């Protein structure tokens, strides 16, 4: 007969969290070279063991097809040898990024002679809750490892076989490189209960990052006692000012809305200054029609639709707050820039808002008054992205104000600590 | 008969939160000079209206005495003309601090020619829940105003009259200076329910900062859906390494423990390397006795107590996690620096830990392995303080890893936003 230790009596979720915490303590002081070696080992292992990964993925795809899953979701779920190679290549890109850990953020010698340094340190244990995109499994693990964090991965149950195979490969590579394999772990259990346990593991998990639909994010924000970084909901606006280059305005509008509709930085609402509406809207409505976009317009927009090719339906209040993620856009005519700002303040999710204007004064006022992660002047909303911003990688786009706001790169996966160095200094 | 608007139907707490949100929108774009003028108006008004404030405070003190409140708490509650002048002087100090808003944190021109700027912006609405210290009312309001935030103040009901008088003076001064008076508001209601409403006002309140006892902080952390910054619990450690200057070690120990016992950066546990214990502990125990400190020692500490003047009791497990805030200290002998680190990792609240050592290697290992807001080398734990760190002011000491860690000054009361400026840039 064996006796159970308290450790054995823990739930499987809490047990992996304890192991992650221990691994995080080992990772924290590691120099960059050791972490980069582990990342290179991961990239190599992904390529060497591609067939094992693709075979596991095939099981998920078969299950998804049997369940009648849409082709769009199956496409996101699918791993081909080519896609695995791309994922491995992304890991090598992370190797080339600077290590944020150890960076001196602030430093001075105090009047009493004490040396004060604020240095970046890993957060510790990062939990990621995400949808059926197996590439996130590797991306998140690579970014966490590079920044000295242990990661707990809670992917969608529809990607269970893929994630299990990927994490096996990741752990083998990490362990083989001499780092703790528990730096990368899958959260066991496919039930909601395992997510709930993760959300209550305060003291073990340092931050939870939910990536996925609005309802998942809301649940995590409301039920978690672990600190959360809210990501991703994007009800983005394009405001066309009274002073705007019409060609530029149409190009930015169509790019923001239709270059890729399923992403959080796609535009969902068009606001047009009343003085430019007669010249802009007829052309814009035709351009939207050509891009297969349905317009949900207010009364004043509807009035401009008559002689256009546009598909226009009357907007309801719901349209102002909807993140369509489809070939739809809400549209309204506003009396002034300040009315546009008011509309945005009232309805935005705070992701990205763009102004198209030739007026320096208007650009300045819009950027001052609009409080979102990103304010774009004469540029598409689609630029709000870690890769586009030159961060080299992105763990998500934070739409909250605390800790990180906007695209999150490696520095956003760190905290800081102060080092106080004296010669026997005491306080008088 | 009057009809109620939806605004009238709101609870009083939600109503002040809406007004704070509107005020925050007005404050955000204000230049430094306007905010500084309001702060100077506050300092002047506090001095001019001292008698009104002291009279209100006298009512709180009378109530507290009738309720049999301890003299220590009554002392913290008491406002004298001299103390009001000191508070006004603190406000003038805030005027001299740089404005964090508008600071460009990061900036570059992207390869495609887009200019990217990350700039500091106010958080928006900051809620402070605090104990019976009326000076916090003014300090918090001044720091929030300087950083462009509206503040919701929820002080202790035992300071109700004082806080009401102070907020009246603050609002008159802010309004008189042409800024929205609703930038400073007291949360109405003295019940727990009003705190609960504040904690659920997600979307209206941007961050809650609880300042007070451990149970208040735990409640806010667990029940709030608004983001929280956890502050203040300090189970701080002093570790005396095998290589340590004995005189320095004793001076740092006594200063850390006894210079002021009721504060979060006071030491609560002493750890001593076994090889220095025979030389250090007898002297240290006498020094602690002279400082009127009771020692809660493990077996090995007790063995050294025989021929000393020390009051020593046997430590229980509880002692390792207790924040005494009194003339008590837990003490243990450890086999090595790594055992000291393990002890700290297991029991610390993550505030401040100090090492006393002459060994560069030991100092380096300790600062690498200990993960607390502040790690002190040959310096007292008492230096972890915004004033000591040269921040000029402090809204609290964050013991969490997200957003801010350690003493929080003005920059910690801000978020950032990205400004993307192009010439019609679209994404390909």
TrEMBL record, chains A, B:
Its main location: cytoplasm. It is an enzyme of class 1 (oxidoreductase). Residues 15-297 form the Aldehyde dehydrogenase domain. It comes from the Bacteria. Pathway: Amino-acid biosynthesis; L-proline biosynthesis; L-glutamate 5-semialdehyde from L-glutamate: step 2/2. It catalyses: L-glutamate 5-semialdehyde + phosphate + NADP(+) = L-glutamyl 5-phosphate + NADPH + H(+). Its EC number is 1.2.1.41. It is found in: Cytoplasm. InterPro entries: Ald_DH/histidinol_DH (IPR016161), Ald_DH_C (IPR016163), Ald_DH_N (IPR016162), Aldehyde_DH_dom (IPR015590), G-glutamylP_reductase_CS (IPR020593), Glu-5-SA_DH (IPR012134), GPR_dom (IPR000965). CDD domains: ALDH_F18-19_ProA-GPR (cd07079). Keywords: Amino-acid biosynthesis, Cytoplasm, NADP, Oxidoreductase, Proline biosynthesis. GO terms for molecular function: glutamate-5-semialdehyde dehydrogenase activity. It holds the Pfam family Aldedh. PANTHER family: DELTA-1-PYRROLINE-5-CARBOXYLATE SYNTHASE, GLUTAMATE SEMIALDEHYDE DEHYDROGENASE. Belongs to the gamma-glutamyl phosphate reductase family. HAMAP family: ProA (MF_00412). Catalyzes the NADPH-dependent reduction of L-glutamate 5-phosphate into L-glutamate 5-semialdehyde and phosphate. The product spontaneously undergoes cyclization to form 1-pyrroline-5-carboxylate. This is Gamma-glutamyl phosphate reductase.
């Amino acid at each position: 007969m064996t006796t159970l230790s308290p450790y054995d009596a823990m739930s499987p979720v809490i047990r992996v969290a304890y192991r992650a915490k221990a691994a995080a303590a080992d990772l924290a002081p590691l120099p960059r070279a050791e972490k980069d070696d582990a990342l290179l080992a991961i990239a190599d292992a992904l390529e060497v063991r591609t067939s094992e990964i693709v075979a596991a993925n095939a099981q998920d795809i078969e299950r998804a097809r049997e369940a009648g899953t849409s082709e769009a979701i199956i496409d996101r779920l699918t791993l081909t040898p080519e896609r695995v190679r791309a994922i491995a290549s992304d890991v090598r890109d992370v190797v080339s990024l600077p290590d944020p850990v150890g960076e001196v953020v602030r430093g001075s010698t105090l009047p009493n002679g004490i040396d004060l340094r604020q240095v970046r340190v890993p957060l510790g244990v990062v939990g990621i809750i995400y949808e059926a995109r197996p590439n996130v499994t590797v991306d998140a693990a690579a970014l966490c490892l590079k920044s000295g964090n242990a990661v707990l991965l809670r992917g969608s149950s529809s990607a269970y076989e893929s994630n299990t195979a990927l994490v096996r490969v990741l752990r083998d590579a990490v362990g083989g490189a001499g780092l703790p394999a528990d730096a990368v772990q899958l959260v066991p259990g496919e039930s909601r209960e395992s997510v709930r346990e993760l959300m209550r593991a305060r003291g073990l998990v340092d931050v939870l990052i939910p990536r996925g639909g609005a309802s998942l994010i809301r649940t995590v924000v409301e039920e978690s006692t672990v600190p959360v970084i809210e990501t991703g909901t994007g009800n983005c606006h394009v405001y066309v000012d009274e002073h705007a280059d019409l060609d530029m305005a149409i190009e930015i509008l169509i790019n923001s809305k239709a270059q890729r509709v399923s992403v959080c930085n796609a535009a969902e609402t068009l606001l047009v200054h009343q003085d430019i509406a007669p010249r802009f809207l007829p052309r814009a409505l035709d351009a939207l029609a050509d891009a297969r976009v349905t317009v949900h317009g207010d009364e004043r927009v509807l009035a401009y639709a008559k002689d256009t090719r546009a598909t226009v339906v009357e907007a309801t209040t719901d349209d102002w707050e909807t993140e369509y993620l489809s070939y739809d856009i809400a549209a309204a005519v506003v009396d002034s820039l300040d009315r546009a700002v008011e509309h945005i303040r009232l309805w935005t999710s705070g992701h990205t808002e763009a102004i198209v204007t030739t007026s320096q004064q208007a650009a300045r006022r819009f950027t001052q008054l609009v409080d979102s992660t990103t304010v774009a002047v004469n540029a598409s909303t689609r630029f709000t992205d870690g890769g586009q911003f030159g961060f080299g990688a992105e763990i998500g786009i934070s739409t909250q104000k605390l800790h990180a706001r906007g695209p999150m790169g490696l520095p956003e996966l760190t905290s800081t600590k102060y080092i106080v160095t004296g010669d026997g200094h005491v306080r008088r």
